[in-house]
Specification:
Helix content: 40-55%
CATH architecture: 3-Layer(aba) Sandwich
Largest sheet: 5 strands, parallel
Order of helices and strands: HHEHEHHEHEHEH
Radius of gyration: 16 Å
CATH class: Alpha Beta
Strand content: 5-15%
Number of domains: 1
Number of strands: 5
CATH topology: Rossmann fold
Strand order of the largest sheet: 3-2-1-4-5
Number of helices: 8
Shape: globular
CATH superfamily: NAD(P)-binding Rossmann-like Domain
Oligomer: single chain
Distance between the termini: 28 Å
Structural class: alpha/beta
C-alpha cells in the first residue's frame, strides 16, 4: 500500500501524469518551514490546490514570500523567451496556494495530507492524533522524511508513513 501511494504521489507531482494528478487535487501541507513550503510550491506548480498550514502566521507569511520568489525564479528559467507564459505560470501557481493557521476547513476537501512539521516526536504524535480524529474519510498521510517514521508507524499503523519518492524541493 505504501509503495503504491508513493508512486501515485510521485507521479502526481510530476507534470507528466495528468491521470494521477486528477486523483489528487487538494493537498494540505502541515508545517510551513522550508520543507513544507517546498512541497507546497511543487504541488501548486503542478496544478494542485494547496493549503499550507502552520500555527504561526509569521512563518506562513515568510513561506508565502519565499514560495512566490522561488516560483518567479522557476518561471524565469522555464520561460526564458516568453514573458507572457512566465507571468501566466507565476499567476496560476500562486493562485493555487492558500495558507491557514488551522487545518479544519482544508481537511474537509483534502485528497492528501503531507506532514512536514519539526522533528519533535511529541508534536508529531499530537498532530497524528488530531488528524486521525478530524479525518472523516480515509485520507492518506505522508511523512516526506522523518527520523521518527518507524515510531509513528507504531503509533498509527493504518496510515502509510514511509517516505514517498518526491522530487526534491525547490
Amino acid at each position: 500500500m505504501s509503495s503504491i501511494l508513493s508512486k501515485t504521489v510521485a507521479r502526481s507531482f510530476s507534470s507528466s501524469s495528468p491521470a494521477a494528478r486528477a486523483a489528487i487535487q487538494e493537498v494540505v501541507v502541515i508545517g510551513g518551514g522550508l520543507m513544507g513550503a517546498g512541497i507546497a510550491q511543487v504541488a501548486a506548480q503542478t496544478g494542485h490546490n494547496v493549503t499550507l498550514v502552520d500555527i504561526s502566521k509569521e512563518v506562513l507569511d515568510k513561506s508565502e514570500k519565499r514560495i512566490g520568489e522561488s516560483i518567479k525564479r522557476v518561471a524565469k528559467k522555464s520561460f526564458k523567451d516568453d514573458a507572457a507564459a512566465a507571468d501566466k505560470f507565476v499567476s496560476e501557481s500562486t493562485s493555487r496556494l492558500s495558507v491557514a493557521t488551522k487545518a479544519d476547513e482544508a481537511l474537509k476537501t483534502a485528497d492528501l495530507v503531507v506532514e512536514a512539521v519539526v522533528e519533535n516526536m511529541e508534536l508529531k504524535q499530537k498532530l497524528f492524533k488530531v488528524l486521525s480524529l478530524a479525518a472523516i474519510h480515509n485520507l492518506p498521510f505522508i511523512l516526506p522524511f522523518s527520523f521518527f517514521c518507524r515510531s509513528l508507524t507504531l503509533l498509527h499503523p493504518r496510515r502509510p508513513s514511509s517516505p514517498p519518492t518526491l522530487p526534491p524541493c525547490p
